[in-house]
Sequence to fold (261 residues):
Amino acid sequence: MPIHRITETIRPTQSEFGQIAYDVMNCVYEIHNEFGRFFDEVVYKRELADRLPGMELELPVSVSHGTFSKLYKLDVLAHKRGIFEFKAAESIASRHRGQTINYLLLFDLPHGKIINVRPDRVSDEFVNCHQRLDELRNPSVNTEGFDSAVAGASFFHDHLISLIQDWGSGLGTGLYEEALTHFLGGEEQVLLPVPVMGAKGHLHDQKMRLVAPDVAFKITAFLGRLESFVEHARRLLKHTSLKAIHWANITHRQVVVTTVR
Fold:
């Protein structure tokens, strides 16, 4: 089984999750008022579990494909029905939302919440995900702009589609990149320095993931403005020795595979 977790979950109605969130947040406010804002996030979630029944902390879930395996640990699962991700950050960012959606899909739950304990007053944000991984394993694949003659093309396309068919298309882009890196031989073989050239010559060596010599790969999950990525990728190519970038943009319903040259 490609996704393994040690506990079963129960999909709640929105009102059921709303009541759970109300109880959790009341407790978090009390803890924050008592402890202040300068502790690590682990302090707040462990105190929450001590004060409020039904909280499970740092639950592992693994994602595997062939010889590749990735382990995640969820901050808080409440009553087996809701996910709460604790942060101690300046503000809630898009990467936190993406991480929470990742956990909602992995634990097969529709509702979660991000809790940021660093501000003077606790900030929080609901995150909903009504898709399920079983529904995301067969997205449409658009290869209109993909050049199969460029080095690394077959590996990139075939392995990526195999991962999506196994896991689904909604997980974090970093997971797919890590898996491809693994099957290419690991970071020492794949994440390599690429010289960046300016008006007067060599400026810097920047590490990039290479699927073949002089060919990089990148995975994104943009909901729009794909043209902007292509434009900036071509600027990158002009200032490096790279010949091409194999790029896949993954959304829940479609995978667009492109070769930028």
Remarks:
- The helical segments are 14-35, 41-51, 94-106, 153-167, 173-183, 187-190, 226-238.
- The first strand starts at residue 3 and ends at 5.
